[in-house]
Amino acid sequence: MAVATEHLAAALKSARRAAGLSQRALGARTGLPQGHVSRIEAGAVDPRLTSFVELARALGLEPVLVPRARLTAVRAVLRGARGPAAPRPAHALDDEDDGTGTGTGKMADAEILDVARETVRAIEAHAETVPLARAGG
Fold first, then answer.
1. What's the maximum distance between 2 C-alpha atoms anywhere in the chain?
2. Cα pseudo-dihedral 47, 49, 54, 57, rounded to 10
């Protein structure tokens, strides 16, 4: 599996385990053989997009595309939805891309909040013109 998709396979595996499902049970929900689910999770195969979406939805997840410039804000919103994140060392922040192209990964909390608010406004502005996909529906 390509390096760019390894994190997706790992996320599916983690979500499956968190849901307390076996590969066989997840396969039964999606119509995929257990062996194929295993190969996807192991990174031995690149799943078709339709298979990936079905697996994600069976686990209560919804794949979405996020503009890179808004990725930090989306991550901040998701962290807020899960509660406070564990403190991270400063060097870990340096390695993240903040979407500005600078590669520093450092944004002040106020900046993150501003970007998150701007992102929410943009989503709300387009909500009436773009149908939003809902998990399980």
1. 47
2. 110
In sequence order, what are the residues at sequence separation of 6 or more whose Cβ sits closer than 8 angstroms to the Cβ of residue 112?
A: 72, 73, 76
Task: Say how far apart CA 108 and CA 113 lie, in whole Å.
Answer: 9
Q: How confident is the model at residue 2 (pLDDT cuts 50, 70, 90)?
A: low
Residue with tokens 């929410």: 120
Q: How far apart are the first and last CA of the chain?
A: 30
CA distance 28 to 87: 39
- The residue ranking higher by pLDDT, 72 or 105, is 72
The position carrying tokens 């053989």 is: 33
Length of the chain: 137
**1: three-class secondary structure by DSSP:** coil
Residue 109 has pLDDT above 90, yes or no: no
pLDDT of residue 72: 87
pLDDT for residue 1 is more than 70: no
Rounded to 5°, angle at Cα 57 from 53 and 62: 75
